[in-house]
Amino acid sequence: MAPSPSSQPTLSVVPLLTAEEFETACHAFLDRVHVAGDTKVGWSWIRLDQRATGPILSISREVGHVSTLHTSSDESMPDPEMNQVLQWGASEEDPEALIRAPGPSVSLQVVYDVLLSPTYQVPVLYFQLRQDSYPGPLGIDAVYQYLVPDQYRKELQSVGIMGGISFGYHPDSGTPAFFVHPCHTMDAMRHIAGQRRLTPEAYLIIWLGLVGNRLGLQLPKELFTKEGMEIFQGTM
Amino acid sequence: MDSKATLGSIQKAVWDGRLPLQITLAPSESRTYDQTDPYLIACPRISYLPSLLPRLRAFFASSLIDPNSRPHEGWFSFEGVPLKWHYPVGLLYDLYAGADPASKGGRDTDLASTTDGDPLPWCLTVHFSDWPDGELVRLDPDGIVLHDAFINSVKEADFLRNGTAKGIMTLSKEDSSGLWEAVRDVDLLSFQRISNILIPPPSQPFRNVPIRLFLPLPPDSGSPSLKVVQSPIPPIIPPSSASIAASQSILSTRGPQLQTIGSALHSLLPHLFPSRRTPVLAKPVLHGAAVPMSAPVEEVARCSGYGDGWVYIVIRMMG
């Protein structure tokens, strides 16, 4: 039997997380990142904040310098109708201002906040994509262009009223933020977890792979290369 | 009295509830600065502010310095605070206007009377430019963001009631958009037809009751955030906590205890609500009225929820 990551007990009610399990998972994941080496992971930072709404696992990364914030109907927006629907998001008032004002190169940064939904009792991903010196978060078109990998775009855009990404308020800061609506998370986690006994951290890692991947939050392989870092307990 | 009729009449009263609003165009956007005539309306408490925008945009058209602004670029503020449009108007008023809640018998002597003027009509400012991106989610011309926010809220309430997201998933597409249209148009009959499909019948108790509590923040806190408290609240007090209560109360030996507004507040905010029966330090306000502490939470949700199925209670400090 492989050595289990620390000695976390397995989840009480798959596919849900209790507040305690969520916190355990966040701590274990944070430890894993520190063991792998913060600089190797390639994120700007990762931290765990204790807020009135509960713990928030916060990860930031540079999306990098992009030459423009243009979202014309190029290959990144395969469906012209969808493109039209998506264009209001960032800068309805005057898209040109946002596209041209920053000059030849702007730096984008994304902050991902993982919280436990008090309604669904599963993690929920809030994120804000920001451009230096712009007060609010960037809009949904920029999210699809710079965060969502090509293979997930259609899938994410096809569900719900405005796609799998909703625009709402961050539960802690109260500021506008995008989030992935967690109403499908339970079924997806149940499906993936199957009969495995999961530790809270394994749950979080699987969830990050499921939801984070679609929003450009990839887990670096360095997190899983050291001995004793297997995420499943026992035989699978 | 037939209790079903009572629930129905309470729901009708909630849907009939209106707030007089006096809406002024932001002086900086007006050709006549602060001399623009205000727009007056008796606005349904359960409706959402953006539904007023087309009318306001038309009303203020001749006064606007920028003639190119569009209705969905409109946003509201009260005393300089941008108002979150995804909350119903009545909730925003209960949160921000600082008005004393109505209570049974109309006597409310423990609260200072309105020394700084009558809060009604509620005076709001509408803006059609300078959207506060750091504080408010932008709207779109087709109302998609507003519709999406409403449905997300409906889904959450549904999930709490059933423990699954199946209820809302079983609604036809027509009924799902019909639900939003019924709330948007304040059409109680259409709303009832669809919510009868969505909400389990009275014989089938909710798993949890969708309740959110809004706590007061100091007026000078300068934070756009409201303190919101939410935790799963079952309609029957679970046995584990009931057995603790059993040592204190002989009543609980008679069987499962109904969760009341008072017991829910006491379990979520024990410092503000030391008693389950009497408001001591704070009182719960819903639709502008003080909610009785003895009201069973499930009944409150069935008859006095907002259009999205949630009971939004504002906690008002006393004294």
UniProtKB/TrEMBL annotation, chain A:
InterPro entries: Atg3/Atg10 (IPR007135). Transmembrane segments: none annotated. Keywords: Autophagy, Protein transport, Transferase, Transport, Ubl conjugation pathway. One of its GO terms (molecular function) is Atg12 conjugating enzyme activity. GO terms for biological process: autophagosome assembly; autophagy of mitochondrion; protein modification by small protein conjugation; protein transport. The keyword Protein transport applies. It comes from the Eukaryota. GO terms for cellular component: cytosol. Belongs to the ATG10 family. This is Ubiquitin-like-conjugating enzyme ATG10. It comes from Aspergillus ibericus CBS 121593. The lineage of its organism: Eukaryota, Fungi, Dikarya, Ascomycota, Pezizomycotina.
UniProtKB/TrEMBL annotation, chain B:
Pfam families: ATG5_HBR, ATG5_UblA, ATG5_UblB. GO terms for cellular component: Atg12-Atg5-Atg16 complex; autophagosome; mitochondria-associated endoplasmic reticulum membrane contact site; phagophore; phagophore assembly site membrane. InterPro entries: Atg5 (IPR007239), ATG5_HBR (IPR048940), Atg5_HR (IPR042526), ATG5_UblA (IPR048939), Atg5_UblA_dom_sf (IPR042527), ATG5_UblB (IPR048318). Residues 14-128 form the Autophagy protein ATG5 UblA domain. It comes from the Eukaryota. Residues 208-315 form the Autophagy protein ATG5 UblB domain. GO terms for biological process: autophagy of mitochondrion; cellular response to nitrogen starvation; piecemeal microautophagy of the nucleus; protein transport. Keywords: Autophagy, Isopeptide bond, Membrane, Protein transport, Transport, Ubl conjugation. Residues 146-201 form the Autophagy protein ATG5 alpha-helical bundle region domain. It is a peripheral membrane protein. One of its GO terms (molecular function) is Atg8-family ligase activity. The keyword Protein transport applies. Its main location: membrane. It is found in: Preautophagosomal structure membrane. PANTHER family: AUTOPHAGY PROTEIN 5 (PTHR13040). Conjugated with ATG12. Involved in cytoplasm to vacuole transport (Cvt) and autophagic vesicle formation. Autophagy is essential for maintenance of amino acid levels and protein synthesis under nitrogen starvation. Required for selective autophagic degradation of the nucleus (nucleophagy). Also required for mitophagy, which eliminates defective or superfluous mitochondria in order to fulfill cellular energy requirements and prevent excess ROS production. Belongs to the ATG5 family. This is Autophagy protein 5.
